Amino acid sequence: MNFLWDIALRAKEQGFKEEELFFKQAEEYSPYFEQSFSCVNETKVTSPVIESNLLYRFADIFQDILMQEDSGLTKEEQSQFGAYLIDAALHVILYADLRHGLTRREIYIREIEKELLKGIFFSGLSKDFSRIEREKRNRLASLALAQMEMGSSPFLFRRALLVLYPNALLYQIKKEEKTLLLYIEKKENETEKGKLRFVKEMFLPVGYDLRVFWRYHFGIIGVEGAMQMDEIALY
Q1: N or C terminus: fewer CB in 10 A for the chain?
Q2: Cα–Cα distance between 193 and 187 in angstroms, integer?
Q3: Count of CB atoms within 10 A of residue 190's CB?
């Protein structure tokens, strides 16, 4: 990670909130990088204090502040004022950086994700949605927007399932087209049940019936992998 926006996104992944981050000019830095980590290939943010080379992209904005020209303040006051001014300015720049090039659709997706977490959109499922890993929530919010545009369908339901469980197997009964059988290789627990409940309530079309098999697949005569002793679920 090199640029300010990349560092902020990695910090978020490490559990830091944007308002907790404090940006400052690094004392030691390379003129060829914006980041000033001790390791050029650093992939983690371990402190809320982020040092960077402000002259890499923002020389026109910060060079006068960094020069600490005479402003009537003492050297200590000037240093403190400059530090907080730089931090405030970089938070504004970060806001623009993170949204640079965003499409209208991506903005909609992010708003849907926020509303799902707060329980504003589809109230009652916010707790289940929050159980889902951060990187998967955005993909599910994108599918929620697609559903709003095109309507619900088994296809969207299947795509949402595969976001959570890439190895899941979904079957449709030929004689009962609205009856679906789902096999998930994971062990059943409250967290996984909550994740699946969100996808089912959000994406499963009205009138469809879903039966879930956790960990053990139901037996299929003639399919060796589904006929293992002590590993067969009854259907």
Answers
A1: C
A2: 10
A3: 8
d(CA 143, CA 42) in angstroms, rounded, equals 33
Confidence band, pLDDT 50/70/90 cuts, at residue 226? very low
Half-sphere exposure of residue 113: CA atoms within 13 angstroms, side-chain side: 18
- Alpha-carbon distance of 235 to 171, in angstroms, equals 13
CA dist., res. 145 & res. 105, Å (int): 9
Kind plus residue range of the DSSP H or E element containing 106: helix 104-118
Neighbours of 23 (CB within 10 A): 22
Cβ burial of 142 (10 Å; 0-12, 13-18, 19+) is: buried
H/E stretch holding 142: helix 134-150
CA distance readout (Å), 173 to 9, 106, 165, 210, 211: 44, 36, 21, 11, 11
Contact status, residue 112 vs residue 145, Cβ threshold 8 Å: yes
Report the pLDDT value the prediction gives residue 222, as an integer from 0 to 100. 42
Pairing outcome for strands 232-233 and 217-218? parallel
Please, what sign has the CA dihedral across residues 98, 101, 104, 106?
A: negative
